[in-house]
Design goal:
The complex is a heterodimer of chains A (about 280) and B (about 425).
Chain A (H helix, E strand, L loop, with lengths): L1 E5 L3 H14 L5 E4 L10 E4 L4 H14 L2 H13 L4 H14 L12 H23 L3 E2 L5 E5 L6 H11 L5 E5 L4 E5 L4 E4 L22 H15 L7 H7 L28 H7 L1
Parallel strand pairs in A: 1-2, 1-3, 5-6
Antiparallel strand pairs in A: 4-5, 6-7, 7-8
Helix pairs in contact in A: 1-2, 3-4, 3-5, 4-5, 5-6
Chain B lengths: L1 H13 L12 E3 L9 E3 L5 E2 L5 E2 L1 E5 L26 H13 L5 E5 L6 H17 L6 E5 L6 H10 L2 E3 L7 H7 L5 H24 L11 E7 L6 H14 L4 E6 L17 H16 L4 H4 L13 H8 L6 E2 L5 H4 L7 H10 L7 H7 L3 H4 L3 E2 L12 H10 L8 H5 L8
Parallel strand pairs in B: 5-6, 6-7, 7-8, 8-9, 9-10, 11-12
Antiparallel strand pairs in B: 1-2, 3-4
The chains are: A alpha/beta (about 280), B alpha/beta (about 425).
The complex binds iron/sulfur cluster.
Chain lengths: ~280, ~425
Amino acid sequence: MHFYTYDGSFEGLLTVVFEAYERKAWPDQIGREGEAPPGIFATHLFVHTDEAKAKRVWEGLGKKLSREAWENVYKAYLWEQPGFEMLIFRFARLVFSSQQKGVEENFADACVQKIAAIGKQMFREKHRMEAFIRFQRTQDGLFLAPISPDFNVLPLIITHFEKRYADQPWLIYDVRRQYGAYYDLERVSLVSLEEAPRGLRQGHLSPDILTEVEPLYQQLWQTYFDHVNIPERKNKKLHLRHMPKRYWKYLTEKKPRQQAHQPIQNKQVPTKLRQLSR
Amino acid sequence: MQTSLVEKLRILADSAKYDVSCSSSGGKRKNEGKGLGNAEGMGICHSYTEDGRCVSLLKILLTNFCIFDCAYCVSRKSNDVKRAAFTVQEVVDLTINFYRRNYIEGLFLSSGIFKNADYTMERLVRVAKKLRKEHNFNGYIHLKTIPGASEELVKEAGLYADRLSVNIELPTEQSLQTLAPEKNFKEVLTPMGHIKNQLVLVKEEKKLFKSTPSFAPAGQSTQLIVGATAESDRQILTLADGLYQNYQLKRVYYSGYVPVVTDSRLPIISTPPIIRENRLYQADWLVRLYGFGVNELVDEQNPQLDLQIDPKLAWALRNRHLFPLEINTAEYELILRVPGIGIKSAKKIVAARRFAHLTWEHLRQIGVVLKRAKYFITCGGRSLETREWDEEAIRRRIIFGEKGSRGNLWGSQLDLFQQAG
Ligand code: SF4
């Protein structure tokens, strides 16, 4: 059996695909450099990342796939869940071996199903980040937001934020994977902080690094959030489905309040109802 | 000053929240030249209220002072409530600062009528203009058109807003007369007509001159209150359908009546009609996207939608002679009509069957809800059910489960996100 390892990069993984075809030696397992082989009988091969080979595989896939399915291959890499390398390999093999165009629509194939499902999962996580990121403004004018997504979606959300916040510097930092995207009004670069600002991981930046009006706007947003709620329609289950608890720690509206906002008593409850509810 | 801003926001958000429309999609505003914001494509829900509604826009009233006295409205003149008014600048600052922190997609500004319609409308327009001109703001702006505002102001509003809306609120002239005596259908429909004409005009001009300024690129919408008056679902859906066709509305929103004021003209209810509201949305959806006609869903004999089951299933049960469909050969349009199959699944089925003969397992993987669909389809000529079930039995089995135990019916019915398919 064949065990391939690579440096963990996307290009590296594509090079593995290339080498496997070169040797006609199909991998049974693919792992990151340093990973232990699956058994003593495995032939181990470490593949050096080769940009040119990776490019050929990538473009080869692009020619045979719809744009969406093509992107899904990259998303499966960012998905990072156990077995993703072999899945990508199997999918690539299926694509290269099929004569017909449009294999990505062959939903009767398990591998196609899985890649499409991952594409969906990644899309959802990306979309959630685009929705749930909350910036806090620091004294030097930087808009700073910690994230901790289930999957590595930061590379997928950069364009969105670049388009939207073109006139303010921002930094979105993945505290779990310890890297971030920094926009300096010119371009975005990937950065890694040697020392993260205090409280970043918890989502509570210390007040002395925040700009003066920041607490006020956070309070205003909480006020707003509390008041758009219609208590008569309460539906906790639905609420949690849309905003699972694990995302709450960075949501301004979910942080503790100085003062809870009760709905304004603008309403006169119909007298008959009052009797009923007693 | 600062406490008062919080206080104003409390009052003016609280009274705006009954307007359900929070859609921010359909914008086409691109961020060109490094301004702030982008309202291209799909709207984003940045948060969800505890009742599970999407929070995408900062939805507030400019003021809740009002010279009118509509029975169903918290802000009505005769109601004894706290009143407040934002300045134009305050709304602009809130919007910009919320937007920069990624709290919102934009602003949805409405207002009670102070002094008169034009006076109020002029201020709404000023907010939008300031955001666009002074702050280079490209986020989403939805302005409510004040009934009775002049055509010029409505036109100007459309230059800065992505969407304009005029709320009809009550589905018939008669109801309007009883509950909102200062309003009438004509006053509501006139601005709607102006907006439509302007939309058509600009579209035509754009074909000739690319530089024609946009006019409310996300179109216009309206809202109907459900359950405050006696109209049937058929009346409501027929009205909505007419509005879609004659006024080119993008959306009609249905808002289950929440009792906010005591008034002898209003019904006494303890909870808003959430299920009915949900059924109306499902029906609206079926008409706009699934190719159903209103009269297929409700008619003279059945003027109300079934509250227990969704309108698509109800339709299929009434039309059993059209089923079962063979999934490997049936036309797309018909597959769309099968309960348990949504648009996405229908598309996947049609795509996948080019490669393979589809089996039940494939259908399950594609995302078809077999629990519902199996009564209406065959796969390779075979049915998943060995028995013939009659309409009543299918209904029972779908609602209560196949073992006949009574599941949490109302709990699951409240689930607004169950597939309309
Ligand atoms: S005009 Fe509008 S704000 Fe005024 S009472 Fe009627 S519905 Fe309420």
